Amino acid sequence: MAEDINVTASPDDKSSAPTSVTSSMITPSTTHKGLELP
Q: Within 13 Å, how many C-alpha atoms sit on residue 32's CB side?
């Protein structure tokens, strides 16, 4: 069971990792720019 979960979490984590990083990088970037402007 532990191996089955690891295999399923491996591809899911890899696909979710880049999406989460990109969203996190864009969110602070936009907020920083918006907060710095005003």
A: 6
Residues 7-37: pLDDT tens digits?
555 555 555 555 555 555 555 555 555 555 5
Task: Please give the Cα distance from 30 to 36 (Å, whole number).
Answer: 10
What separation in angstroms does the CA of 15 have from each of 20, 34, 37?
A: 9, 29, 34
DSSP characters over the chain: -HHHHHHHHHHHHHHHHHHHHHHHHHHHHHHHHHHH--
